[in-house]
Amino acid sequence: MDTGSAGVDSPASIAALERCVAGLDWTRIAADLERCGYATIAGLLAPPLCAALTARWADEAGYRRHIVMERHGYGRGEYKYYSYPLPATVQALRSTFYARLAPIADRWHEVLRLPSGFPPEHRDYLARCHAAGQRRPTPLILRYGPDDYNRLHQDLYGEHVFPLQVAVLLSRPGAGFTGGEFVLTGQRARMQSQVDVVPLGQGDAVIFAVNDRPEAGARGIHRVRMRHGISRVRSGRRFTLGVIFHDAT
């Protein structure tokens, strides 16, 4: 999928990205999400676009907050939340993925007997978040160096939580860094956690459950509590783009 040859945030690049997301095998993605709580997408972003997003790390004007993880007990590494207005590429990813994921989110919430009725357009969902006081943008870029890691966690920022999110690996494994695997755990009541290590290449994306997801069992539907993190980086520098669909208080 060539979504980066025209340059970051150019109209041609944004149009290509939107076509790419629309043309994904959403039947397969929905089935993978139902089966194990995550789905991968190979080559969502081309290497030049990954490099362009990474190069913006030093541009402090584009971010609302810079977090040093060790200061808060989150692990080791850094991340920055984008400010509004979001870069066009990040905005396009957020809006186009949301439109495809909202029906899946509705099914999950209905099965889990949680509030459903996610609007089809992301701007309408954000209006709901903002009316509840969740007005701060949550898309972010994360940077890890040698010995950095991210503890298992959930990205919950207020009353309104969209049950799925997307992460895109911007660095090249092996050449840019070693270690730093994306890790997911799922835990059912009164059971030990199940762990998945999700292999990703540069530009690959993973869609995954933010908090609870349904899982079919012999006695009906079970609620699985999901967490995600990053294993220790052994060498090099690892950058990730995170696309979260609800805003923060």
| Rough outline | globular
Oligomer: single chain
CATH architecture, by name, is: Sandwich
Q: SSE string, helix = H, strand = E?
A: HHEHEEEHHEEEEEEEEEEE
User: Which whole number gives the mean pLDDT?
Assistant: 94
The biggest beta sheet reads:
7 strands, antiparallel
CATH class: Mainly Beta
Whole-Å distance between the termini? 35 Å
Strand proportion: 25-35%
Number of helices, where a helix is a run of at least 4 consecutive DSSP H or I residues: 5
Please summarize what this structure is:
With 249 residues, this protein is an alpha+beta fold. 27% of the residues lie in helices and 32% in strands.
Write the layout of secondary structure elements.
Blueprint: H1 11-22, H2 26-36, E1 38-41, H3 47-55, E2 63-68, E3 75-76, E4 78-82, H4 88-111, H5 122-131, E5 140-144, E6 149-153, E7 164-169, E8 177-179, E9 182-188, E10 194-198, E11 205-209, E12 212-217, E13 220-230, E14 233-236, E15 238-243
Antiparallel strand pairs: 1-11, 2-4, 3-6, 4-5, 5-15, 6-13, 7-11, 7-15, 8-14, 9-10, 9-13, 12-13
Helix pairs in contact: 1-4
Any descriptors?
alpha+beta, Jelly Rolls, six-stranded antiparallel beta sheet, 5 helices, seven-stranded antiparallel beta sheet, 249 residues, 15 strands
